Amino acid sequence: MTERSDWSTVDLQKELTRYMVEHRVSRRELLERIALVGGAAALAPIVAACSSPGGSPSPSAAASVAASSAASAPPSEAPSVAPTPVPSPEAELNILNWTDYLADDVIASFEQKYGTKVTQSFFSTTDEMYAKLGDDGGDYDISFPISVDVPDMVAKGTIQKLDKSLITNIGNLGKEWQDPGYDPGNTYTVPYMWWTTGVGYDPAKLGGATPTSSKELWNTKWSGHISMLDDWQEVFGLTLIQMGKSANSDNTADLDAALALLEQQKPLVRTYSTDTIGTMTSGDIWIGHIWGADRFAIQETIPDFAYYIPEEGGVKGNDTIATFTGSPHPVAAQLFINHILDAQNSAANTNLIYYMGPNEAAKQFIDPAILDDPTINPDQAIVDKLEELLALDQSVRDEYLKRWQELRG
Q1: Helical (H) or strand (E) element with 39
Q2: Is 74 a member of any domain?
Q3: Would you call 394 exposed, middle or buried from its count of C-beta atoms within 10 A (0-12, 13-18, 19+)?
Q4: N or C: which end of the chain has fewer CB within 10 A?
Q5: Beta-ladder partners of 142
Q6: Could you read off the pLDDT of 299-324 as tens digits, one per residue?
Q7: Model pTM?
Q8: Do 235 and 331 have their domain in common?
């Protein structure tokens, strides 16, 4: 009978190391073998090499070596309680923007904070913006799509999904802006500035009248001195709301009824135009369908110019901030969006351009004259009567456009 080895005298860790060196077995290979066939089977050749000639290895020894090997293996990394470091932004950021739509100090503070050089290019119409952005943003990292266009841009793969781990200031948004219909959950964009569409007029030309309804745009007293926006969705939206319908109605009977009203109005209308500032200051227009924020530019020529949101309700819209799938500087873009959502930065932009932002935390820093102006910052009762224009299915859009062409033809 062969004699068993006395394993109590063997330095198993030392023998294991020796065997691995001699046989060129890496620790990873050894652990893989243990995982595949079990510790005893994987270590049997090593234990045999450590035995005296003819000796039979002890199962307990193999188990001991396996335990020793497992104990000496590098431990798996424990979860860290430290915050994940913010990735460093790129050295440049390219913005495609309206003129005077971002405060200089906001740009400068971003550059100083991150060491990123910001370059702005400008457009004068939304069509120009979208042409420059193309299918993936082109060479631009940031721009300001209108909310109604966001769903289509997302569907086409133009807009990049937000990395909210980098946009911690998103919690500054007011409750009513946290889940917009055009971008549920602000998954791809964040709202930037919002506006209302309503009615503006020159009090002197109306002889002291103080209208409150959108029906005033159908008043035969002002025939030849009325303007309407040259925008099919805005015009139909205003008319549908006046009728007590949704501004986004997909009911063809509603659209026919709205068209009939607009055809009644058409002989009274002097012009359909998106240049509301130019038309309202021309002297020929006494009352018109305008974007609310244009009131301030008009008042430079007509100091008493007045604006109201129709008592029946009105349209609200907003620009968004977005980054793009082709963004050359994606980290800087996400961090810039977060920078814009900072309460003081958001307020600085509102104080510059006289549009209200959706940033609830910013209100404490906004000029009181803006906060107290109901045409910019309407009471909640008015806000509740405003409706945002949505992206319509193509078949519904075609129904609107067919009627618009009939009206404008």
Answers
A1: helix 39-50
A2: no
A3: exposed
A4: N
A5: 95
A6: 999 999 999 999 999 999 999 999 99
A7: 0.69
A8: no
